[in-house]
Amino acid sequence: MSERTSHPKGSLNTIRAALLAPLSLVFILSACNSSSRATTKSTINVVAAENEYGNIAQQIGGRYVNVTSIMSNPNTDPHDYEASPSIAGLIANAGLVIQNGLGYDSFINKLEGASPNNQRTNIDVQTLLGLANSTPNPHLWYKVSAMAKVAAAITQDLSDKDPSHKKYFLERERGFVASLAQINREILKFKETYHNIDVATTEPVSDYLLNTLGIHNLTPWPLQAAIMNGVDPSPEDVSIELNLLANHKVNIFIYNQQVTDSLTQSFISAAQKSHIPVVGVYETMPTPGYDYQTWMEAEIKALQNAITQKKSTSKLTFCRICCFERETLTFVKLRSTSLS
Fold it and tell me: CA torsion, points 69, 327, 125, 218, in degrees to nearest 10?
């Protein structure tokens, strides 16, 4: 991660920072661990198909939302998810539903159709970004710059449902967008620092981020698509992948940490045999200890470590401290500005 900016100097700002520290802690806990937070009588029930979108909703809605994320287990394959009756009940009583689209979470549409509710609204990220159904890669949350649009849509919807707290939602949205700007600066710095980085992958989970970072994915698309969709890739594509690893044609091997099988393991073994660092990326946000921003920062850091230290990162570790640091600086800065 990039070096943090220190608090502004001066007695007035110092006093403000001290006064706002308890408020910052409340904000941190709501963003990083939504399960421990209290709600109010005007709480809006939000159901997110994926926990990364649920986390963004929690960061913006704060104490005025009750967020439930359906797919939130980083140790399972999201593609195998089957909705339960309890999820159907959550959807029926939701004020806002957030889904990815592109067929990734189509069970949401079926559940909504089974329980019509004219008070319930839906944010479909595919539709929000204007993407065609033919878009091949559904992992839209790795489009970091696009999450500002998601945040804006959530803020608008919550403000429409609870106009008395619109200012609160807008302020938290500004904090979220500010932290995205920090990540985008890290992405730009990465792209300017590291050149001619080639990787091989199992699936297109992080392809949007890799492209933004200026990293070239040499794995044939048909192989990525086949593994993503749970079908056997062609022997020709498997041979190409193994050749990339055996002949050191890539700097990093990247795999979906949540979906492994004998074929994936054979690729990992081939990378390790060739002393190519291996990085596991996540399809849903790892918990506990991460929010959307620190998750993306951790994925970028893992790639940096692979390039500069030849270090493998198969699993992200608990990250409460980095979440605490970012949220403290962002929230105190916002609040100090609003008091000026």
Answer: -100
Q: Please state, in angstroms and rounded to a whole number, the distance separating the CA atoms of residues 189 and 154.
A: 29
Q: How far is CA 82 from the centre of its chain?
A: 21
Tokens of 302: 């893992």
Give the distance, in angstroms, between the CA of residue 112 and the centroid of all CA atoms in the same chain: 24
DSSP one-letter code for 5: P
Residue 133: enclosing H or E segment and its boundaries?
none
The tens digit of pLDDT for each residue in 21-70 reads 333 333 433 445 444 344 455 799 999 999 999 999 999 999 999 999 99
Phi, psi (degrees; rounded to nearest 5) at 312: -90, 145
Query: The whole model's pTM is what?
Result: 0.83
The string of DSSP codes covering 77-131 is -GGG----HHHHHHHHT-SEEEE--TTTTTHHHHHHHHS--TT-EEEEHHHHTT-
Cα separation, 243 vs 223, in Å, equals 14
Q: Which of 311, 238, 314 is nearest to 275 (CA)?
A: 311
